[in-house]
């Protein structure tokens, strides 16, 4: 079997008729890079930000070998592996965003991240470690692209060519790497807490207002272990560890950048010995009924798509992991009306706090 867009799925991510696994930007990147890819040798091609495997698998099917791939969300990695198995394709390896990913690369296919800091991290890494003749073919949907992206790429590459737009998508082609640098977490000290964040992590090196409200509302007494679900930069995990000197925190996120950030945040606040940070799809590494307390500030988007369907999946898995009577403490935008969903998926839910924008609730596992 060979690559087929019709067989490409988003699973284990959300699926639906308005959530395609391959889009016009993927097709444009593949078309614009066709000649470059045909001339690439084994190990020359790197794919970064491939949502569900379209770029990687189409390249392998066209003859590329030794392809190195990086996807920030673990769901993307799992989707790539599942799609490869479904189509009987191999010849690629998933790697972290470090020198091993791009060392000696001659062609890089990149789905442009929406965050300029994330693009800066990627472009700097490629410029530092790829071959001197590397060509970066970076594309995205026009509605998510800005002129500032051109400026970021120009700060690491000598030339930048811009393709014609097609089906509301465009490609930026960069050559001549210079002034490369490995990604470094950005830092800020806020109310005595050192917050560290790599590019693309929600809120960056700051504390968003929802998380701040959750922290203000958490109970004075907690069990011996707390799970920080969808931990982001690790603000909640580090804050709880600082408040409770004997507490162990299990922090988890599916984003590789978030996990790296949370580890840096824990280390910067001298609580790394009590904060375990794991990259996970939901809470799949935790056994059912293994937790007494989970805290959660749920995301509200899948990639660039804003949706209310993300949080219920997290609520359901939190319910699976909680012991009977264990509690899920959650902050959410009041306009989303999550309380009936929490009641249905977790159990009896009480309001802890509410302000002009956010609500904090505690749901007891029935």
From TrEMBL:
One of its GO terms (biological process) is methylation. Residues 8-174 form the RlmG N-terminal domain. It comes from the Bacteria. Keywords: Methyltransferase, Transferase. Residues 194-361 form the Methyltransferase small domain. One of its GO terms (molecular function) is methyltransferase activity. Pfam families: MTS, RLMG_N. InterPro entries: RlmG_N, RsmC/RlmG, SAM-dependent_MTases_sf, Small_mtfrase_dom. This is Methyltransferase. It comes from Microbacterium candidum.
């Amino acid at each position: 079997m060979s690559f087929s867009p019709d067989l490409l799925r988003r699973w284990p991510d959300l699926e639906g008729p308005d959530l395609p696994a391959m889009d016009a930007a993927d097709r444009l990147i593949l078309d614009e890079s066709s000649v470059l890819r045909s001339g690439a040798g084994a190990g020359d091609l790197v794919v970064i930000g491939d949502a569900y495997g379209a770029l990687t698998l189409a390249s392998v099917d066209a003859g590329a070998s030794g392809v190195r791939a990086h996807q920030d969300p673990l769901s993307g990695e799992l989707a790539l592996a599942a799609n490869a198995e479904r189509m009987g394709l191999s010849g690629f390896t998933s790697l972290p965003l470090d020198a091993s990913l791009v060392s000696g690369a001659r062609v890089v296919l990149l789905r442009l991240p929406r965050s300029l800091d994330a693009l800066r991290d990627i472009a700097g890494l490629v410029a530092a470690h790829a071959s001197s003749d590397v060509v970066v073919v970076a594309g995205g949907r026009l509605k998510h692209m800005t002129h500032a992206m051109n400026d970021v790429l120009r700060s690491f590459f000598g030339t930048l060519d811009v393709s014609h737009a097609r089906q509301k998508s465009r490609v930026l082609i960069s050559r001549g790497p210079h002034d490369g640098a490995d990604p470094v977490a950005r830092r800020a000290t806020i109310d005595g807490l050192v917050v560290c964040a790599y590019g693309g992590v929600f809120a960056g090196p700051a504390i968003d207002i929802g998380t701040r409200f959750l922290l203000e509302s958490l109970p004075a007494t907690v069990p011996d272990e707390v799970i920080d679900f969808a931990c982001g930069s690790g603000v909640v995990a580090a804050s709880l560890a600082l408040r409770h000197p004997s507490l162990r925190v299990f922090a988890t996120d599916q984003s590789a950048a978030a996990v790296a950030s949370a580890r840096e945040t824990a280390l910067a606040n001298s609580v790394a010995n009590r904060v375990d940070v794991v990259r996970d799809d939901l809470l799949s590494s935790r056994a059912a009924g293994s937790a007494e307390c989970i805290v959660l500030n749920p995301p509200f988007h899948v990639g660039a798509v804003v949706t209310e369907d993300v949080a219920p999946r997290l609520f359901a898995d939190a319910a699976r992991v909680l012991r009977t009577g264990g509690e899920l403490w959650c902050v959410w935008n009041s306009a989303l009306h999550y309380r009936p969903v929490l009641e249905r998926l977790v159990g009896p839910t009480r309001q802890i706090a509410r302000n002009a924008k956010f609500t904090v609730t505690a749901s007891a596992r029935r």
